[in-house]
């Protein structure tokens, strides 16, 4: 019925959003460890990690649009 179709659309959207933000979550968990990482210890390390997360999210968003999931 119409209710199950609407529910399926909502679940599909939530799944795609989780798919888009999962790589950023993995990057944050990796750089959140208390390790001395040479890439992150520089003056622009924080901005580089933010940029990396933005690029990964943009790529997964574009791929989801290409696959017509959004």
Number of helices: 2
Give the averaged pLDDT, no decimals.
Answer: 84
CA gyration radius, whole angstroms: 17 Å
**What is the count of β-strands?**
0
Helices and strands: which structural class? mainly alpha
Report how far apart the termini are.
22 Å
Low-confidence stretches: none
Shape assignment? elongated
Per-chain topology:
Blueprint: H1 2-31, H2 45-66
Helix pairs in contact: 1-2
Explain what the structure shows.
- Helix content is 74%, strand content 0%.
- The protein is mostly helical and 70 residues long.
- The protein is elongated, with a radius of gyration of 17 Å.
- The model has no long low-confidence stretch (mean pLDDT 84).
């Amino acid at each position: 019925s119409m209710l199950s179709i609407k529910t399926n659309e909502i679940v599909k959207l939530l799944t795609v959003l989780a798919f888009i933000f999962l790589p950023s979550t993995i990057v944050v968990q990796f750089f959140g460890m208390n390790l001395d990482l040479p890439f992150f210890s520089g003056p622009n390390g924080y901005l580089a990690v933010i940029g990396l997360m933005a690029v990964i999210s943009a790529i997964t968003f574009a791929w989801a649009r290409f696959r017509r999931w959004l």
